[in-house]
Amino acid sequence: MSAADTTTAKVPPTRPSTVPGAGGGTGGAGRPAVRRSAAGGAALPWTLLAPCLLVLLLVLGYPLARLVTLAFQKFGQPQLWGFQEPESVGFANFTKILGDGEFWAVVVRTIVFAGGAVILTMVLGMLTALLLQRVSGWVKILVNIALVASWGMPIIVATAIFKWLFDTDYGVLNWLLSRLPGVDMIGHNWFAGGPQGLAVIMLLVVWGAVPFVVITLSAGLTQVPKELEEAARLDGAGSWGVFRYVTLPVLKPIIVMLTTLSVIWDMGVFPQVFVMRGGRPEAEFQLLTTYSYDKAFVVNDYGGGSAIALVTVVLLLGVVAVYMRQMLKIGEVE
Fold first, then answer.
1. 77 touches 319 (CB < 8 A)
2. Taking 80 as the threshold, does the pLDDT of residue 162 lie above it?
3. CB 257 within 8 Å of CB 323
């Protein structure tokens, strides 16, 4: 047997195509089937998302469209009761609020409030999640039960508890602080000024937000490779070095997501301020949400209130855009 025969014998026979309609020529009779399969695969996610998108459209679509419409109209009590027709005023509502110094004071107050609440929430959540990795199993179970219970508590109930804790005459916190040597906090009014009162409301917001952060970060910490932590310790890294160069990079996508959600939630705080101040927040307690509510339902300037709410939505969309950019960068690195 020649070398040519040996080489030819080793070549396996060509298998017939199993794709229906596949031809042997270069015309590619099987390509339409592949294209149909790819098209069906691309349509499947949208088919599965269709019910959720429909619900969102029904629940949020009309209110958002109505909000945009009112923001460009003169709409007060005469228009509400049908005595007058709504009058289109263009950007007059936005010009009015953007030229109002009180509006910008509320914007700054809202940003400071949300920033402080987010930082405090993330720091306490991270410390608690790291602590839960070092305790025994039964302690972790008890802490998780307490976290879920506080997370599931209605906001109105939590606000009532905080009002009792910081009450001027019967507050537990004033009594506890007065037990310290040289401290007399009996009768101290925490809501006499805006900074102290907003700090109390911030603690209330953080108290309700920390459980979600802790539970999410605890789940993320289980995905940190133990081998990398051990290798870092063998290389001489301390606890801070292991956290900074091993744990933190693994948790970065989760931290970005939690930070973005916290900013959105904390900039949209309403019931905590509204209930804590008895339904009528003073000027130094106004945030964007309560300020928009007062303009619309107290002053009966629904156009101005809608314009403030629309500006708030635009600010939150900016936060979402930053979040999407960060997530795309993380995806490119990975």
1. no
2. yes
3. yes
Task: Tell me the pLDDT tens digit for each residue of 54-64.
Answer: 988 888 888 88
d(CA 58, CA 60): 6
- pLDDT tens, position by position, 39-80: 566 788 888 888 988 988 888 888 888 889 999 988 888 888
Which of 254, 318, 302 has the alpha carbon at shortest distance from 71? 302
Q: Which residues partner with 87 through β-bridges? A: 74
Coil, helix or strand for 168?
coil
Q: Which tokens belong to 258?
A: 């939690």
* 120/202 Cα distance (integer angstroms): 9
Half-sphere exposure of 319 (CA within 13 A, CB side): 22
Arithmetic mean of pLDDT, 84-103: 90
Q: Which of 33, 3, 8 is nearest to 20 (CA)?
A: 33
Alpha-helix runs per DSSP H in the chain:
3-10, 31-56, 62-71, 77-80, 92-98, 101-132, 137-152, 155-165, 172-178, 194-221, 226-234, 239-242, 248-267, 271-276, 288-293, 302-333
Its pTM surpasses 0.85: no
Give pLDDT, residue 42.
77
Please state, in angstroms and rounded to a whole number, the distance separating the CA atoms of residues 74 and 85. 9
CA 186 to the chain's CA centroid: 38
Arithmetic mean of pLDDT, 159-174: 89
- Return the number of other C-beta atoms located less than 10 Å from residue 289's C-beta: 21
Q: Residue 74 in 3-state DSSP? A: strand
Distance CA 136, CA 129 (A): 13
Contacts of 287 (CB under 8 A, 6+ apart): 106, 109, 110, 113, 269, 270, 273
